[in-house]
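Action item from last week, closing it out:
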Amino acid sequence: MKQNVITVSGVTVKPGERRYIDLPLPSLYTHSRVMMPIHVIHGRRPGPKLFVSAAIHGDEINGIEIIRRLLHYKALKTLKGTLIAVPVVNVYGFLNKTRYLPDRRDLNRSFPGHERGSLAARIAHLFVEEVVSHCTHGIDLHTAAIGRTNLPQVRATLNGNDELRKMACVFRSPVILDTETRAGTLRSAAQEYGIPTLLYEAGEALRFDEIPIRAGVKGILAVMRDLGMLPASKIRHPNYKPLISKRSKWVRAPQSGIFRSITPMGKFLHEGDILGYVGDPFGTSEEIIHAPLSGILVGRSTLPLVHEGEALFHIAETDVNHKTGFNLRDFHHEIDPDQENPFR
């Protein structure tokens, strides 16, 4: 069967071609032109069409490096199907080192967008029309918001979607959060198109985190191999399964003050375990923070100065026992055998 040409932003890409395309966006008020970078690798043989996107939130830069490394992978020369990689979706936020667009809107609450709407709506519409609509599968790369960090995790709606469940398990992150999509997100818009799309969360905003980056590259390649886009790997991986959680909860600061965590990322917790402390700067009072449920710690604040009510710990509920720790050690060893626990 012969591969057809693909046209992105008016540029036709033939089978076997690799093209870099600038997708025009609304200009700055200085009249400076703004472009969204799109890499299209169009295999000689037909197969799935996968989009990989990053920096929908402009300060979440781990995904940019994940895509850079992915595009240098030599086996892409044998690609079946099509890879469309967009390292920076929110170019405006990236330029300003911020999560948001210039109008303070969150691009990932603006999909599928509209061609005559707000700036956010117009960018979302362009992305759906020029990228998502061409694809059969998707992976969207994120980090925690600024001042927080995330354990590598995949988020997907697994109920009734066997293909998405398989993608999530093949990605081989330590945790899968089985969550419903939120209105306005890229994942929600892709779902309306019938495109199974994973969301990968790992690390911090405005920082390159080596372990999450390596895990992201490995995860995307594993999905591509499973879809038949790349040859199967000859490397044998440790036999561990990701934890699947259907519910998670943020634990918030009981008072304002100085926050101290005593809990490493990825630790399995029992309800009532001590997570950390919040005390006033003068040592006159201190509140103990307890785990309100059993599960695994998948997110945490990195800022020591907090106000009452701020989110400090993110726990994914699970009913597994302490063998969870062995799963996480296997994950660490696979990504970097010389680093015992990079999430402490």
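Closing note: The two ends are 50 Å apart (CA to CA).
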